[in-house]
Amino acid sequence: MQVEELVNQLFEKIKDEPCFMPYLYNAKNKSFDENKDWVYYSGPYWNELEAKAAVLTFITGQWLVSGENVARFENEYSKKFGFKSSVMVNSGSSANLVMISALKKRFRWNDGDEVIVSPVGFPTTVAPLVQNNLKPAFVDVTFSDLNFDLKEVDKKINSNTKAVLLSPVLGNPPDMDELGYICNKKKIILILDGCDSLGTKWKGKYLSDYAHVTSCSFYPAHHITTGEGGMVSSQDEELIHLARSFAWWGRDCYCVGSTNLTTKGACGKRFSKWLDDYHGILDHKYLFTQMGYNLKPLDMQGSIGLVQLKKIDEIHIKRREVKKRLEKIITKFLGGRVRILDEHSNAETSWFGLPIICEDYHLKHKLVDFLEKNRVQTRNYFAGNILLHPGYKHLDDAKSYKESSRVLDHVFFIGCYPGLSEEMITYIGKVFEKFVNL
Ligand SMILES: Cc1ncc(COP(=O)(O)O)c(C=O)c1O
Q1: Contact yes or no for 93/228 (Cβ under 8 A)
Q2: Interacting residues of 291 by C-beta distance below 8 A, sequence separation 6+
Q3: Domains of the chain (ranges, CATH numbers)
Q4: Which in 101, 108, 244, 320 has the greatest CB count within 10 A?
Q5: Most informative mutation of 41, 91, 93 for ligand 1 (most atoms within 8 A of CB)
Q6: Which residues are paired to 120 by β-bridges?
Q7: Is 222 annotated as catalytic?
């Protein structure tokens, strides 16, 4: 019997058992118990199909390292989002790291060159700049959308500025036309940390269409997940070749899966005279063109990604629907005291979370406390102003970014992911109602 058939039979037997993936969004025999269950801020939107794909890869794989499934996922992902090339890595943070390392090498940026970035967001958007001896040039946010203020971006650009690094807040972009105009006018590139914004569109096109290169995260809180995982994608194949090299020990060879078993390799000249300073023949696999890392994912992650990719359009629609419904409920009870972040009229945002902006510090903290006590998970908008944090305060003076410093006072988010069931949405409504009637 074929292994696939055996695995199918096994899953048919176990998939309806209460102990099988009991946390699933559509788990049978499991309904939400509002007296003890939590409503998470996010979570994987997967079922037995992803589990089956991973098990099959485990059983049939030998080394389990990045192979055919990762290569197929890279190709399918590129096709879906219109990239020429992508490289999968083991996290979104690793994606950002190899993306910036590759950009610096590709465009011959110098140490100390500047990249514009918001102080508000996730730390590993900023860290790879410093790790590559580049200077993060911070621009304060505007409370209208919590993204960096585009007028200030324009003013901040100087002769050392090489790029703008955008990380749309909870998936929601600023005015991409204006940002694109600024970058073109100043002849600098736009980099997208797209970890929170997979599927978001501007004027009907993916945000990545407006950027030179885009990263993504597949951590379970994100739009699609492979457990841990990330991707760097671009139309610039040379850039992706460099990113792959940084993620694969710094080597030049780019053979994946079965091409590893060919004598000539993907380059067609595997055994050649590759080194200027060595007279003989070298295997391309051991040609090192950068000081790299090992940030490769496992092949099981590739097989999970292939299944998840088929669900991305459904996930996009559901995230938007849930966001709208929760927005209505919360505004009914707390309208005037909180504002739910909205999208620009040209944007079709794939919301990472439901961003709630409170009228003041006290309301935010009372509300967060109440929601958590009632098992509705909340999250800060990540670090708030990253310059307030011990690992980052040496980079610049947090006080110069006043609006960014207000983010922790006013802003938090709750989940709006597709795994929220009807019962959970109703329960969130009840908790907000209870809060206003305290
Ligand atoms: C905007 C942004 N960039 C980067 C990352 C890092 O991704 P990962 O957790 O996969 O390392 C995150 C994580 O949530 C993020 O939100």
Answers
A1: no
A2: 250
A3: 59-309 (3.40.640.10), 313-436 (3.90.1150.10)
A4: 244
A5: 93
A6: 385
A7: yes
What atom of ligand 1 comes closest to residue 167's alpha carbon? Answer: 1
In the predicted structure, residue 93 carries a pLDDT above the cut 90: yes
CB distance 230 to ligand 1 below 6 Å? yes
pLDDT confidence tier of residue 420, bands split at 50, 70 and 90: very high
pLDDT of residue 15: 87
Ligand 1 neighbourhood includes 381 CB (under 6 angstroms): no
Distance 166 CA to ligand 1 centre (A): 13
Angle, helices 92-106 vs 123-131, to 10°: value is: 40
The span from the CA of 408 to the CA of 400, in Å, is 16
Say which DSSP state 405 is in: H
Would you say the CB of residue 219 lies under 6 angstroms from ligand 1? yes
Whether the CB of 379 sits within 6 Å of ligand 1: no
pLDDT at 27 over 70: no
Is the CB of 92 inside a 6 Å radius of any atom of ligand 1? yes
Give me the torsion for CA of 72, 76, 78, 82, rounded to 10°.
Answer: 160
Q: How far apart are CA 416 and CA 92, in angstroms?
A: 21
pLDDT for residue 193 is more than 60? yes
The answer to whether the beta carbons of residues 299 and 401 sit under 8 Å apart is no
Round to whole Å and give the CA distance between 83 and 236: 9
46 CA distance to ligand 1 middle (Å): 20
Asked whether residue 26 carries a pLDDT value surpassing 80, the answer given is no
**What's the chain's average pLDDT?**
96
pLDDT surpasses 80 at 345:
yes
Token duo for residue 90: 């083991």
| pLDDT at residue 21 in the model | 87
The catalytic residue among 212, 222, 223, 316 is 222
Which atom of ligand 1 is nearest the CA belonging to 382?
A: 16
How much is the pLDDT for 176?
Answer: 98
The neighbouring-strand residues paired with 85 are 234
